[in-house]
Write a structure and sequence with these properties.
Layout lengths: L3 E5 H9 L2 E2 L7 E6 L9 H7 L6 E3 L3 H14 L5 E6 L3 H4 L2 H10 L4 E6 L33 E5 L5 H13 L7 E6 H5 L1 E5 L6 E2 L9 H13 L3 E5 L1 H5 L3 H11 L3 E3 L14 E4 L6 H9 L2 E5 L5 H4 L11 E6 L2 H4 L5 E4 L2 H11 L10 H14 L13 H10 L5 E5 L3 H9 L8 E3 L8 H12 L4 E7 H6 L3 H8 L4 E6 L4 H9 L22 H7 L3 E4 L3 H11 L6 E6 L26 H14 L7
Parallel strand pairs: 2-10, 3-4, 3-5, 5-6, 6-8, 7-8, 11-12, 11-14, 12-13, 14-15, 15-16, 17-18, 17-19, 19-20, 20-22, 21-22
Antiparallel strand pairs: 1-9
């Protein structure tokens, strides 16, 4: 006779999650972020309180940002562990949809458990319930369907017996890895069921390493042997596969330059002789030079996003062929690439065994050296006088000069992602954390907290503009409460400087981006130092770049977050250090403005350079 234990569905969920383990003996689901409301406080809330010694709960300030912290946690740990996030029904649940989309784009595992409406429908419509007039089975939580890799609605207590294993199977599979949503009806959470005791036995989840198909492997090896000037595009899959060392050895042994995507940056430190830096729209002169001449582009763990490829106008060699090494077949065949569907580390090791004696000839070490020298000069302190506003490159230089091998530079949106991808010289593997798949404003502060929770020995520096800071800053209070220290460098350019420059570049007038160009009576004078200090952070205004360096040094070792505000020039981007490339941003075909017409002419000319198979 099967031995059972009677639990509510919520109690059973938490009990089961608490015994799902990694190969290293840690909980795979580290714990659960929660903001309670009537959709989860009585069911999940009770279960989480009773299990708090075995399965921790953390309170956030906003459903979206606590999910951002969970995403950053898992990304930092190379997707080896994850966290769960729960909310009430209605706005609490839909607040998390943006974070779910962010996790989906970036292929990061997060377990979303939003409360849902009553399965029995007796009290319908309940507070915060959205009713679909044409479909009685739909709730607001169906918004999660297109932005998660697996969705299920728990409307009976026995549903978790199948839903939970499916959820973790999705999250731990490198090919399907991403967010999962288990929409948990609030009455079901409280219902009891006799669960098999065996359901709660500890289980170890192993992340597999898929082997390459023999035919694909042989074909890719042949394509590399036939190439004179190949280039490797290193994506986030290199890091998640822990293939950093293998990639460095592969590039060095065969003389193949490596260029970086946002997700793949810092797989190799910038000092590695085969690391040519960022590629594409925000790419370096050296990286874009080898990319333009490449007769074979070897993507490793990348989706070939438009910033990486210069909207597919970067790889100019008419004989260029494309190979994509990716654990997901969906990504491996993009843009007509020849696929090698496999774990990145395994694929590189097996390719190396087939390429003995091969040597590429397209490396440009002098170009790499010249570009790095230009970066150092560009990021130097210009020591402007009174009234001078530093550029973002000077801010990056200040952080670079005070960094160590333990430093992680992180960001998500605005000017800094492009500037950092081009200019930040990661001192060690893992020294860069960028959320640029979704480029979600407001990820930064919460993400910095998530990184530090995952890697307490790292020195986390969060770059955030005033625009992103205004979007979402409340988890700063959470970090203070939990004593999670990191440093926020808040560059105040009084608006959305990055998009203002893009607006001008596409022929538009400055409008609705910088505060001075908005339809307002008075430009706001926001005291970011006072604001951050009000949440308990150590906050200070840096007078200039030299003072910024001093404040960065002083921040090291504090037990709470430090926020350093510095005024910056909104009119300068990162491109003065060389590199950069066209980006496909559509310009109006008809306009009464000469500047727009001129920008349109340039746009049409660049479109003719695009070379891709969609």
């Amino acid at each position: 006779m099967t031995q059972t234990i009677r639990l509510t569905a919520a109690q059973a969920m938490i009990k089961w999650l608490s015994v799902q383990m990694t190969e290293d003996g840690e909980r795979y689901i580290d714990g659960m972020w929660g903001i309670f409301g009537h959709g989860n406080v009585a069911g999940l809330g009770e279960a989480m309180e009773k299990a708090k010694a075995e399965f921790p709960t953390w309170r956030g300030q906003n459903e979206q940002t606590m999910a951002h912290a969970a995403i950053a946690f898992s990304k930092t740990l190379k997707r080896k562990r994850a966290q769960a996030v729960t909310s009430s029904i209605g706005p609490g649940a839909t607040n998390m949809v943006t974070a779910a989309a962010l996790a989906h784009v970036n292929r990061i595992p997060v377990l979303f458990v939003p409360g849902d409406v009553f399965a029995n429908r007796r009290p319908d419509p309940v507070l915060q319930q959205i009713e679909a007039f044409e479909d009685g089975t739909v709730s607001a939580n169906d918004c999660f369907r297109p932005v998660v890799r697996y969705y299920d609605r728990i409307s009976r207590p026995e549903h978790i017996l199948t839903a939970l294993p499916r959820a973790l199977a999705t999250m731990t599979d490198p090919a399907t890895c991403g967010p999962v949503c288990l929409s948990f009806c609030q009455d079901t959470q409280a219902e009891a069921y006799d669960y098999p005791v065996t359901f709660f036995e500890p289980k170890v989840w192993r992340i597999r390493r898929p082997e390459p198909d023999a035919t694909e492997l042989a074909q890719v090896a042949e394509m590399i042997r036939a190439a004179k000037s190949p280039v490797i595009v290193s994506g986030g899959g290199v890091i998640y596969s822990e293939a950093e060392t293998v990639l460095g050895e592969f590039a060095t042994r065969f003389g193949i330059p490596m260029v970086e995507t946002q997700a793949g940056k810092s797989a190799l430190p910038q000092s590695h002789p085969m690391n040519y830096g960022a590629t594409g729209v925000d790419g370096s002169e050296a990286a874009n030079a080898v990319s333009k001449e490449a007769d074979l582009v070897i993507g490793v763990g990348t989706r070939f996003q438009d910033f990486t490829t210069g909207s597919w106008s970067l790889f100019e060699n008419p004989k260029r062929k494309l190979v994509s090494i990716n654990v997901a077949a969906y990504d491996a065949v993009k843009h007509g690439a020849y696929p090698l569907v496999a774990d990145a580390k395994v694929a590189l090791e097996k390719l190396a065994a087939l390429l003995d004696g091969y040597q590429a000839t397209g490396a440009k070490p002098d170009a790499r050296t010249a570009w790095l020298a230009k970066v150092d000069a560009h990021c130097a302190d210009r020591k402007g006088g009174e009234g001078y506003l530093p550029m973002d490159c000077e801010v990056i230089g200040a952080v670079q000069r005070t960094s160590s091998a333990a430093t992680v530079a992180m960001c998500a949106a605005g000017t800094m992602p492009g500037a950092l991808k081009l200019l930040w010289q990661a001192p060690a593997a893992g020294g860069y954390h960028m959320e640029y798949g979704y480029s979600c404003m407001g990820y930064e502060v919460a993400g910095a907290m998530g990184i530090k929770l995952a890697a307490p020995d790292r020195d986390v520096v969060c770059f955030v503009g005033d625009g992103s800071y205004m979007m979402a800053n409340s988890e700063l209070a959470t970090a203070v409460m939990r004593r999670v220290p990191f440093t926020v460098v808040l560059t105040d350019n009084r608006g959305y400087g990055c998009i203002n420059r893009l607006q001008m570049h596409t022929g538009g007038e400055q409008f609705n981006n910088l505060y001075k160009d908005c339809n307002i009576e008075d430009q706001p004078q926001i005291d970011y130092v006072a604001h951050a200090a009000s949440m308990g952070a150590h906050a200070v205004k840096a007078k200039d770049i030299a003072d910024l360096e001093a404040q960065l040094t002083a921040a090291k070792g504090r037990a709470i977050p430090t926020v350093i505000v510095i005024d910056t020039d909104p009119m300068h981007g990162p491109g003065e250090a060389g590199g950069g490339h066209w980006w496909d941003v559509a310009v109006p075909e008809v306009s009464t403005t000469d500047k727009v017409a001129k920008a349109r002419d340039g746009y049409v000319a660049n479109m003719k350079r695009q070379n891709t198979v969609n």
